[in-house]
Amino acid sequence: MVSVEYINPFIEAAQNVLKELCSIDAKIGKPYLSQAVYEGNTLMIIVGITGDLRGQVLINMTEEVACALASHMMMGMPVTELNDMTKSAISELSNMILGNTATIFSKKAITLDITPPSVCAGMNLSISVSDSKTICIPLVFDENKSVDINVAIKER
Predict the structure, then answer these.
(1) Quick check: helix, strand or coil at residue 96?
(2) For the packed helices 4-22 and 63-73, what is the interaxial angle rounded to 10 degrees?
């Protein structure tokens, strides 16, 4: 099982980036073990982790949430479809979250490198991750919207 000390930096970074970039106060939902199966229309960003820890982080959300976040990032400009601009905005948001996570880990003398984000979008996605367990931490905002941070990492 992944230690809480390895999960908290992802939560802290995600909450900070959502607050600073999107003016969103995301609350932590109930973490759970995930099978990495996502029903409905989903946007997922996959980032690889190497260094003292290794694995993947999957950040997923519904198309509706992706459009809402992209709208927040673009100073309230309406975003109504999951187009290339929306995907690029969410990819950059994910990159900032993982970059901030790596910085938090570096302050604890844990070195992480992250891969460029890969974007997956579609209906009913199923992703096979590394050989470690996947912990999903929902970050909930606006009462019913959430961004799920799925962490599948282990020590090198």
Answers:
(1) helix
(2) 60
DSSP symbol at 76: T
Cα–chain-centroid distance for residue 3?
18
* Residues of the chain where predicted confidence (pLDDT) is lower than 70: 1-2, 36, 130-131
Alpha-carbon torsion (123, 146, 98, 6), positive or negative: negative
> 123: burial class by Cβ within 10 Å (0-12, 13-18, 19+)?
exposed
d(CA 3, CA 143): 28
Residue 97, CA distances (Å) to 12, 13, 40, 77, 92 in order:
9, 5, 24, 22, 9
* Token code pair at residue 81: 């479809």
> Which two tokens mark 110?
């844990």
pLDDT exceeding 90 applies to what percent of the chain? 74
Angle at 119 between CA 144 and CA 150, to 5 degrees: 50
pTM equals 0.91
Q: Where are the alpha helices (DSSP H) in the chain?
A: 4-22, 63-73, 84-106
pLDDT at 1: 52
For residue 92, which amino acid is it? E
